[in-house]
Amino acid sequence: MNPTIKHLIDTKAEMHFHAGASEDSIRHYENEANVKIPSAFREWLLFSDGGEIFVPGTVLYGVDGNAKPSLFSGNSGQERGTFALGDSLLVIGRFNFGDFLCVDTNSGEVVQWNHEADEEFLRWSNFFAFIEEEIASFTSEG
Predict the structure, then answer these.
(1) pLDDT in tens, the chain (142 residues)
(2) What b-and-e string marks burial along 30-58, b requiring 16 or more CB atoms within 10 Å of the CB?
(3) Cα–Cα nearest to 110, from 37, 11, 34
(4) Domains of the chain, residue spans
(5) Reported pTM
(6) Any idea which architecture 3-141 has in CATH?
């Protein structure tokens, strides 16, 4: 198991994980959406195809198009709306206060998109760097 995923589980915080996605379902999403999911987020999807961390917290989308929300619905015109998200930003979740959580499909970096100012707010080197910061924030508050 990825050490960051193990660290997350070991916090004993309330989480909602879905069953992991299959490689086939991830490839299906990539083909349908014409994107390549970066490796760290792909590894997460294999563990949990959507869910919520630190309830009530960040909702993470999965590739299951029947689930709501999903990467399909999260990246639809309705969800992205008139936000100035660039073409390389794939919406992978929402914070409980409304900001988008995105992954840059070019670099693999994870971006918090401020939904009020319609601009990038924070950036992490990859999905697991984001998760580690969320763990640190939770454990410092607890």
Answers:
(1) 999 999 999 999 999 999 999 999 999 999 999 999 999 999 999 999 999 999 999 999 999 877 778 999 999 888 888 899 999 999 999 999 999 999 999 999 999 999 999 999 999 999 999 999 999 999 887 5
(2) beeeebebbebbbbbbbbbbbbbbbeebb
(3) 37
(4) 3-141
(5) 0.95
(6) 3-Layer(aba) Sandwich (3.40)
